[in-house]
Design brief:
The chain has 18 helices and 21 strands. By secondary structure, it is an alpha/beta fold. It folds into three domains: 175 residues, no CATH class; 247 residues, von Willebrand factor, type A domain (Rossmann fold, 3-Layer(aba) Sandwich); 42 residues, no CATH class. The strands form six sheets. Strands 10, 11, 12, 16, 17, 18, 19, 20 and 21 form a nine-stranded mixed β-sheet that branches.
Length: 610
């Protein structure tokens, strides 16, 4: 009976305190494509990706019903950082779908403006609002509708709190007339959140270097994990020894609440309830992590998994030093990466796998039509046949008494050739060890693709080379030689293709730069650089997120400046979020079904070179 009464009371209070409109809710997933295009079209940083922002506590005054119901403690506000434009995952604060959708549009336009360091939140949002209304006057009616709807919902502080009243009055005035208030009055409580403005104090996550170290140390553990779409705020706490720290002399039943962080080890069993842990994590604003012996053991296991020198591939050269682009400094850092050419040590001669026979035969027949037909070259000094037209002219001139030479009395039948060279660069990172379906891994799909690609191009006579790459930080970047331009496609090349295996990480910028240096030496009128990848650039050090993407983008730009044609083929389902920034809207293609890559890759080459 008590549980029933409590359930009814909770339902009653929750409904009475409801200040949201879930029936008119608009999600970021619904408008993601539109807001991304709008942000970039208005001049926003094209390198930023749109992500969902997690809710943060605001500590502002709440109404009595909200305090009884225990809700309205958090708010989802927009902000941007070096890598992401973060927008609320759901907007349902207005009673109509159109207003909620308009709020997404307004926040995107507001975030385009320049973010100044150390500028107060109150002044920054007013400045950005004034700039938007000045540059885009047509958006003023939308802004006025949002302000009117929001002001009608704002909670008015009690009359006995003059400081909070002055603060609320300043915010209302700033919303109605942006730029009219210079400073926000101080009060004992922070003001109620303003969803029309950017976050007053965006959460700052722990440093990316610490994140990378943690991932590196845990990558060899092989444990299960649940992944959340929402980015979480984290801090790192040094793990300290707790033994011998004394005795707790307080009675635990006297402690009504516990709000601090307690450094306790929690064993992770294999049958741990990860679903419950994920639910608990969703309710936490700040996730504290620490390093312990388990993390070090995971890192040790990762290092021990590396192949021994006797079992590793053959090193062909001590390495080439290449620069890397630092997008923060906006400059190339010289000699930062070392690319080491390697060759499979245990690759013998091999035949084409039997399951590819039929497809390879069909592709070879199709690609033979791309091969230029043979034609006669006249006026040759030597050849397979006498050029009758040239001989008749020579004989007639001689009978007529004109001086004539017998140069060029032959003709020669030659096979035509397309002045085209292609270098295929395959991503052989650790992620290729994942399974596409019950029958094949990504690396198996890439291997079949290289086989069919080589079979097809050998039928056209086009010059082509194949390389693979992976990396472990900036030194070394492993550059696997599979086929050079001056090598014929034969059993030895098929053996190298058969020997490819998953490597480590994806330092794509260095691999593209080295491929560019190889391809630009080939004397062809048209030179195509095809990159075959299954994910975005990343590595163990700072080469992830925005840094890796911007370095790859700069490497692609350098390749185009050398007259090459970079083109990316990927099986990453999320590639549309970052590849347009790297290769342009027409410089890439996403293969939706990875199992279709072996057949689609040669056909795609045919379209690019026809």
């Amino acid at each position: 009976m008590e549980e029933r009464v409590g359930e009814l009371w909770h339902r009653l209070i929750t409904r009475a305190a409801q200040s949201r409109y879930p029936e008119a809710a608009v999600t970021l997933q619904q408008v993601n494509t539109r807001v991304s295009i709008l942000f970039r079209a208005l001049g926003g940083d094209v390198g930023l990706q749109v992500e969902a922002a997690h809710a943060t506590e605001h500590a502002a005054r709440r109404s009595l019903l909200h305090r009884i119901a225990g809700d309205n403690k958090k708010a989802e506000l927009a902000w941007r950082d070096e890598q992401y434009l973060r927008l609320p995952a759901v907007i349902d604060c207005f009673s109509t779908t159109q207003l909620n959708r308009d709020l997404y549009r307004w926040l995107v336009v507001l975030a385009v403006g320049k973010q100044l360091e150390d500028e107060p939140w109150f002044s920054r949002n007013q400045r950005l609002t004034c700039e938007v209304l000045e540059h885009y006057p047509s958006i003023r009616p939308l802004y006025q509708r949002l302000v009117s709807a929001h002001l009608a919902q704002r909670l008015q502080p009690p009359s006995h709190q003059p400081l909070e009243l002055a603060q609320e009055s300043a915010i209302r005035q700033a919303l109605l007339e942006p730029g009219s208030i210079e400073h926000l009055p101080q009060a004992h409580r922070p003001p109620h959140p303003v969803p029309l403005w950017l976050h007053p104090c965006p959460p700052v996550s722990m440093s990316r270097q610490q994140n990378r170290d943690n991932r590196e140390s845990s990558s060899g553990g092989g444990s299960k994990a649940l992944e959340s779409e929402t980015k979480r705020l984290a801090e790192e706490s040094d793990k300290k020894e707790t033994k011998g720290r004394g005795l707790v002399t307080i009675r635990m039943e006297n402690i009504f609440t516990w709000g601090g962080f307690l450094k306790l080890d929690r064993d992770a069993e294999e049958n741990e309830d990860l679903e419950s842990a994920a639910d608990a994590a969703q309710d936490m604003d700040l996730i504290t992590i620490s390093r312990d012996a388990r993390g070090a053991a995971g890192k040790l296991r990762f290092d021990l998994d590396l192949p021994a020198a006797a079992e590793d591939d053959l090193v062909l050269h001590e390495g080439f030093l290449l620069p890397e682009w630092d997008f923060k400094k906006r400059q190339l850092i010289p000699d930062l990466c070392r690319v080491v050419p390697m060759l499979a040590a245990d690759a013998g001669s091999s035949t084409l796998p039997s399951h590819l026979y039929r497809t390879a035969k069909k592709l070879r027949a199709q690609f033979q039509y791309l091969a230029p037909s043979r034609k006669w070259y006249k006026g040759q000094q030597d050849g397979s046949e006498i050029d009758l037209d040239a001989y008749l002219r020579f004989a007639t001139d001689r009978i007529a008494g004109h001086a004539s030479t017998d140069n060029g009395l032959y003709r020669l039948l030659k096979a035509g050739s397309r002045d085209l060279a292609c270098l295929l660069l395959a991503d052989l990172s650790l992620s290729t060890d994942t399974w596409v379906d019950n029958h094949a891994r990504v690396i198996d799909v890439i291997r079949d693709s290289l086989f069919l690609f080589s079979e097809s191009l050998s039928a056209t006579g086009d010059a082509f080379a194949i390389y693979g790459f992976s990396s472990r930080k900036r030194d070394p970047v492993r550059f696997h030689q599979i086929k050079r331009f001056d090598e014929h496609y034969n059993g030895a090349i098929r053996g190298r293709i058969q020997a490819i295996k998953p490597g480590y990480y994806t330092r794509m910028g260095a691999a593209i730069r080295h491929s560019t240096s190889i391809l630009k030496e080939h004397q062809s009128e048209r030179r195509l650089l095809m990159i075959l990848s299954d994910g975005k650039p990343n590595d163990l050090d700072k080469y992830e997120g925005r840094y890796g993407i911007e370095d790859t983008r700069e490497a692609v730009r350098e390749a185009r400046a050398e007259g090459l044609e970079p083109f990316c083929v990927t099986i990453d389902s999320k590639a549309n979020d970052y590849l347009p920034h790297l290769f342009g809207s027409t410089g890439y293609v996403v293969i939706r079904k990875p199992s279709e890559l072996p057949r689609e890759l040669p056909r795609l080459y045919a379209k690019l070179t026809s």
